[in-house]
Amino acid sequence: MATRRTPAGTRYSDIAERLERALRGGVYRPGARLPSVRSLCRTWTASITTVVAAYRLLERRGLVEARAQSGHYALVPGAPEPVVERTRLVPTDVSLGQLALLVMKDSRDPRLAPFGPAMPDPELLPNRELRRILAAVARSGAGLDAYGVPPGLDVLRTAVARRAAAIGCPLRADGIVTTAGGLEALTLALRATCRAGQTVAIESPMYYGLLQSIEALGLRVIEIPGHPRYGISLEVLREALDEHPIAAVVAMPAGSSPLGSRSGEESTRELVELLTARQVPLIEDDVLGDLALDGVRQPPAKAFDRAGLVLWCSSLSKTAAPGLRVGWIAAGRFQAAVEHLQFTNAVGPSPLNQLVAAGLLEGGLYERVLRRTRSVYAARTIDMAEAVLASFPSGTRVTRPSVGFSLWVELPPTADAQTIYAAALRDGIALTPGPLFSAKLRYRHALRLCASRWGDTWRPALQRLGKLVARR
Ligand SMILES: Cc1ncc(COP(=O)(O)O)c(C=O)c1O
To answer: 183: CA distance to ligand 1 center in Å?
Structure first.
């Protein structure tokens, strides 16, 4: 079940996003006066409070200046941001090989500067509270005496349904299947909607775990460019849908990785309507959406789903407990298929872990963790982005993410990310090379840097990385 209701408090971020788009697109030159609050209220049928809140958000982002008695004025737009070029819309195979696993293993080496795998800062996780919940579950004796049969434990599904309602996406608990993390949810979604040899359209750059699943399932891929702030290009997606039979679309409208974009509600609704009209399922990766750095959590695309065609996939891995391996999927009309596929693979996720996850989601702890971590990651991503620009050769571009804790760094075109990855490792620095985020191993001159643990301790390592890039 879904609703069209817009949760109070998110409309202003939508208006801010539209104005930001216009500002960045050069509609208002630096110094130009922006439309008055009253005229925007009329244009967007919004209240004065909403429009004022939108302007405040833009002020905080350094894009707009308020002048007493005079209105709002455009400031100089920030440094140029990375650009994801479109490529020919031809289905291709995926062949990432072993690289993703090698990169993931870097997270286990404490000697490396932690710019590699996108892991939350362990210091910010609610470890003490989780241990308390785990101890209570252990005392109760529950969770060890039975299999976790699909669709999963009611107590967790109810907690997830409550959380979904709180972010503008009312769902029934019986429409949710618990999984062993976000990747299992995404893989089940692919298996339920596509058959080997079919083509999926994916937002690009894309999380390499999903690309590996696509590779293992023998699917083909068309990459649709993402924008560092507005997400998947609907224009290019429409073209791909016109030109090719597409079995499913994978996108991250409420929070993308590695770009850190958030598409905005209007564009997300448009995405759902576009796919519903063509009866194409949308696999929504929403593992990052809760880490909206300005605290404005965008409802997932599932909130706009009338037809049961959106498969909403999320987890607790980036926010609160990577080691639990607990996630979920709300698969709409594909639920029965998802349950069956999960069962035939490994029966179902561990009940013990599901009980701990339920304890985390209940009682306000999860919200408190989000409040604490979002503001820390907001400061760290901005500071690390500035440090990248200061240490890397000129021509480098870097994202200012709206969600998550990753930076996408576009290096000058002569740089080769794979060579830089190998050299950086020898120098004690972990990072993720750009080609891992593309089926066609594009993004040869891009890197993803994880900013979750950024601080002065790591500044010398980043400066060394900048020098290393300059030498290549
Ligand atoms: C964008 C994105 N989606 C999905 C996942 C997988 O989530 P999980 O770790 O819960 O399996 C990740 C993990 O890195 C991710 O970055």
So the answer is: 6
